[in-house]
Inverse folding.
């Protein structure tokens, strides 16, 4: 059963803490993406990776970090430098890094800062 | 920056009616995609239309693209309660490289039974 999984579904963080959101795919896709969605808004690109061991900043990378050590995994760390981290985070993947492919999305992680 | 802007922001219709939502964008594109998002869930791909196509159908969905006006429309015919969701257009900008899609803010569609 192929797809993208994200964990946890809900995450609560105290101010000043770093947290890591998991994203795993078994679709054998090369490219993976992290988006942030605020209430009533569209998706904004945080980071993307076209291939293992390579990643690029998106439109709102400040306060976030990623790694791509394995093809299947693209974890996102929300650092204490991110001033307003409460949001819904979505991970996606595509077969290649080219945008003529549809993107496959995970179910999302809702992060709340207490 | 967000390229696509959907219109209207919210739409409420009766079950069985047709729903039309529009998307406008600013720069030249390679393709335009429509996605659906149920509340609190991930996005699901609906349809992709390339810049050299004018109309595309998939089941009860009909998408049009007018590159001269930089706009697209999504028509859902014979709406059902299960169509209640937010709908997003996403563009692949021409010459934008392989950095993914640019999403609009979405249209929230409510189908009243």
């Amino acid at each position: 059963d192929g797809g993208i999984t994200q964990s946890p579904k809900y995450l609560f963080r105290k101010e000043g803490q770093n947290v890591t959101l998991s994203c795993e795919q078994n679709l054998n896709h090369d490219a993976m993406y992290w988006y942030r969605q605020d209430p009533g808004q569209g998706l904004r690109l945080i980071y993307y990776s076209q291939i293992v061991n390579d990643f690029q900043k998106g439109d709102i990378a400040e306060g976030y970090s990623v790694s791509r050590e394995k093809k299947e995994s693209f974890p996102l760390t929300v650092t204490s430098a991110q001033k307003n981290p409460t949001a819904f985070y979505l991970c996606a993947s595509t077969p290649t890094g080219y945008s003529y492919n549809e993107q496959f999305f995970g179910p999302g992680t809702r992060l709340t800062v207490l | 920056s967000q390229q696509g802007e959907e219109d209207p922001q919210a739409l409420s219709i009766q079950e069985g009616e047709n729903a039309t939502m529009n998307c406008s964008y600013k720069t030249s594109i390679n393709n335009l995609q429509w996605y659906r998002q149920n509340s609190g869930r991930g996005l699901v791909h609906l349809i992709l239309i390339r810049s050299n196509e004018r109309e595309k159908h998939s089941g009860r969905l009909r998408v049009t693209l007018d590159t001269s006006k930089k706009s697209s429309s999504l028509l859902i015919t014979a709406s059902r309660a299960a169509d209640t969701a937010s709908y997003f257009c996403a563009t692949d900008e021409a010459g934008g490289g392989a950095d993914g899609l640019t999403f609009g803010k979405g249209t929230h569609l409510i189908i009243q039974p």
In short: Chain B is about 0% helix and 55% strand.
